[in-house]
Amino acid sequence: MEYVPCLITPGPLLFSLHNTELVKPEGANFPLPARLFLRTAPGQPTLIVALCGTTGQLFPTTTYDHGPFQVVGGQRYATRQELGAYFQSQHTGMRPAQGAATLLAVDGSTREVRPDKGRKSFGLAQLRAALAADYIDVHCPQHGPYEGYIFVFDDEGKNRRLPINPLATAAWYETYPLEHYSPVDVVAGPVLLMKSDMLR
Question: Source organism's superkingdom (predicted)?
């Protein structure tokens, strides 16, 4: 019998809204629930969706449509479309330059990180410092758009209740689409994205 690989076509991107607040007129911002995501797809409207952690199904909701939205520690966006455009632009530029890593922050921002002077790869101490983590974990996708890259993150990020990382979680669902993989998972805290040969 001939082996036929399973081809997964690129789907919409899902950016976690865990670290985003709905700005109230009286100034008391309202944190959005952890299972809310911003769904963006070319040629389609940006939607706020609720993710069922058991089934992986997405349910559009209009409950939170009336912005503005404030990314904690970041900018304010008047509409979900503006917030989606921000996350989309950050996602487009998150792959690291040659010889570097990209720090994916929980506010959706990115920053280039290079190995300490005189090194061609990252050491454990530098990774722990960049992530403000005592213990780190490494995930190496074996397929999909991030094959050949690694994600380095705080191994205790979820236990420490760090915010869900919107860019890293979007990359996770690009690699492991909800309709093909379970259980549902998210990435918490800052994440370093780099080529696998940058960690020795």
Answer: Bacteria
